[in-house]
Amino acid sequence: MAIKKILVTGANGQLGWELSQMAVSYPQYEMIFTDRSIIDLSKPETLTSIINEMAPDAIINTAAYTAVDKAETEKELAFAVNAKSVEQLAVIANERKIPFITFSTDYVFTGNATAPYTTDTALAPLNFYGSTKADGERMATAANPNTIIIRTSWVFSVHGNNFVKSMIRFMKERDVLNIVSDQKGRPTYAKDLADATMQMILAIDAGKNIKGVYHYANQGETTWFEYCKKIQSIMGLTCQVNSILTVDFPTPAKRPGYSVLATDKIEKELSLAIPHWETSLLECINKLS
Ligand SMILES: NC(=O)c1ccc[n+]([C@@H]2O[C@H](COP(=O)([O-])OP(=O)(O)OC[C@H]3O[C@@H](n4cnc5c(N)ncnc54)[C@H](OP(=O)(O)O)[C@@H]3O)[C@@H](O)[C@H]2O)c1
Questions:
Q1: Residue 71: what pLDDT?
Q2: Is the pLDDT of residue 1 over 80?
Q3: Is the CB of 160 under 6 A from ligand 1?
Q4: For residue 168, is it within any domain?
């Protein structure tokens, strides 16, 4: 069945917003962008009737409970949004026989590997947010084996809250900043991820068999400290940035030391050339300025 109407959840999030900005480039699709006032993932039991009324030909779920530290205490809500509702969306897609793309995270892994996580690496989340995302993956796949999961990491965008915007603000306001240097990962520009998601939709629409788990992150790897220094140099800010260790910056939810995702599967299957994170960071900061 050709895709005509695409339902996108989480319209006000980083990824949802980037998708909404590029919808004009895909005039062959009617893209319906919904926020929590229309589709509320804290209420999985409400989803079927609302979505069947919309009658989409594909669902892209960018909405998620992403407050990593708060998830340690708001467990029921985080599980409803990230697991129960993702399962329900998968059920709906299965019944309608339509593609379902949802997003997951590097936090489903142990965080102590020494080589990039592949799409086959065993899940072993180290905090509650990660465990809700891992449950969402497993429950959705069990309900609908055609579910497509794209895991990503360290997302930034001109829109919404993220490390890049926080660091720019802090470096303007403060004389000294302490940033952890023993956590390694791959930053991801939400616009690049949105692009890849639309490439995936085009491939599915062209009849390519796509299902299961994919990883998407920008090329290259870095630490939060090096990332902050890069932002500082692009912005020409003079704040003193010190490198500290994770043990000196305790947070309610544990953070992974090593979070590098291997992205070769999506590059190969979609013939994607993923930009380096420094190139995309520059593009994002240029837009912000
Ligand atoms: N951000 C990252 O660094 C990161 C890293 C790895 C993976 N991911 C995953 O990538 C995907 C996209 O993330 P993102 O960075 O775009 O997230 P985001 O900017 O935090 O946006 C998440 C969106 O979900 C919405 N939402 C939260 N609870 C909801 C509910 N009950 N019903 C409906 N909508 C709800 C939020 O609505 P409001 O705007 O109303 O709050 C927000 O617009 C998510 O699956 C996330 O888990 C993100």
A1: 98
A2: no
A3: yes
A4: no
